[in-house]
Amino acid sequence: MSITDGHELIAAEAYAANGPPHDLFAKLRADSPVHHCDNEIYEPYWAITRHADICSISRQPDLFLSDPGIIIERRGMPIDRQEGLGAMKTVIEMDPPKHREFRKVASPWFTPRAINRVDDIVKGAAREIVDRLAGETGEGECDFAMDVAAAYPLRVLSTILGVPVEQEATMLDLTNQLFAPEDSELGWGEEVDESNAQERVMKLGMDLFNLFNPIIEDRRKNPRDDLASVLANGQVNGEPMGPLETLGYYLITFTAGHDTTKNSLAGGMRALAEHPEELEKLKRDPSLIPSAVEEIVRWTSPVNYMRRTASRDTELHGKKIEAGEFVVMFYASGNRDDEVFDDPYTFKVDRNPNRHVGFGHGEHYCLGTHLARRTQCALLNEWVSRIEELELAGQPEWITSSFVVGHKHVPIRYKLSKGA
Ligand code: HEM
Hints:
The protein is an alpha+beta fold and 420 residues long. It has a single domain (7-416), classed as CATH 1.10.630.10. It has 17 helices and 14 strands. It has helices at 7-10, 12-18, 22-31, 51-58, 84-87, 98-106, 112-115, 119-134, 144-161, 168-179, 197-221, 227-232, 243-274, 276-284, 289-300, 331-334, 369-386; strands spanning 34-37, 45-48, 64-65, 139-143, 235-236, 239-240, 305-310, 314-316, 319-321, 326-330, 387-392, 397-398, 407-409, 411-416. It has a five-stranded mixed sheet, with helices on both faces. β1 (34-37) and β2 (45-48) form a beta hairpin. It is globular. The N and C termini lie far apart (61 Å). The relative contact order is 0.19. The structure holds protoporphyrin IX containing FE.
C-alpha cells in the first residue's frame, strides 16, 4: 500500500487539526522521497521531501517552472487565469529571463544596506507594541498571534508600502482572504466551491485595486524614499510596468511578507514558551538573537510548500516525471531532514550551521529575507530584554491552510519589565 495518496499533505483541514504532518514527511524522506500523489480532491503531484532534492529542483528554474502556478488546487476549481486577480502575474510566478528582469525592479531596495533605512521603523514598532502589552503593571495575557505577530509586520509593511494606518485593518483582512480562504475565522466565512470561488476572487481583486491604486498614483506624482515609490515607478526592459504588473508587485510584497513573518513570530513565541531553557539562553546572551530567528524560521517553516511544473520529461531517484506534471517541494520537510540537521526535531536557538530552506533556495530565494530578519530581530530584542516570565495560557490553534502555515492563536501569560 502507498504511504499516502497526498491528500493529507495538502488538505487545509488536516493542518488546522494537527499542524504540519512531520511523521509522514519523515516516512516519505526515508522510503519514498519522490512520491506520486493522486487523490480525488486535489490535482495530482509528486511530493519532494528531502532537503537535497528541494535545493536541486530550485536551482533548475528552466526545468521546473513557476509560471504555470505555485499551489496545488482542488480538481475542477474554475479560477479564471485570463482575467482579474487570476491573471495577475507576480515575480513568484515567473520564470527566467522575465523573472530576473522583474526581480531587479525591487531587489536594490531589499539589500542588507538598503534595509538599514527601516531600522528606525521596525525598532519603533517593536517598542510600541511591547510597551502596549506591558501596560501599567507589566503583567498580562494576550493572544500573541493576533495581538503581536499579526499587528507588528502589518505596521512595518504598511509603512514601507504607503498604506495609511486607517486602512491597515482592510489590508489584513484582504491578505487573510487570499492566504486562508478556507479558514472560518480568517477567510471568506463561507464554504469555497465552484459556485462562488470565481466571484470571491474577482471581488478580492477589486478591493486590492481600490486600496493600492491611490498609493500608486500618489507615488508617481510625489516619489519618496519608500518601496511604494520604487514599485510605482518601476521599469522593466526600459518600459514602465503595466497596471496589473505594478499592482501585483504591491500585492506580492505585502502578502509574501506579512503572513510569513506573522507565522514565524507566532510559532517562535510558542517554541520559546515551550522551551524556557532556550529563552534563558537568549536572555543570557542576546547576541544569539539573529541565530534564534534562523532557527524559528526553520522550526516554523511558514511557507510549507511550493509547486513547480516540469517543462520536459525528466527523472529523479528513478521516478519518471513527465512534462506538465507537478512537483511539490515541502520546505517544512526539508527543514527536518537529518541528512542536513543534527537533531532536527529539537528547537535550538544557537543551532549552527543552519542551512534551512525556510526562505526557499535558488532562483526564487525570498526577496524579503533581510527585511524579515531585521523585523523579527527587532521584536525579539525588545522581548528578550524585558521578559521576566512567559508561559502558554491555553492551547495554540493552527490556521486552516496548508500553503502558508502557522498559528492563528497563541495565548500567552507574561510578565515584562518597564524597559529602558
Ligand atoms: C519569515 C518570513 C518569510 C519567509 C519564511 C519567507 C519565505 C519565502 C519563500 C520560501 C520564498 C520562495 C518561494 C519559491 O520558492 O517560489 C519566498 C519568496 C519571496 N518572498 Fe519571502 N518570506 C518571508 C518574508 C518576506 C518578506 C518580509 C517579504 C517582503 C516584504 C518577502 C517577499 C518575497 C518575495 C517578493 C518572494 C518572491 C521572490 C521571487 O520569486 O523571486 N518575503 N519567501
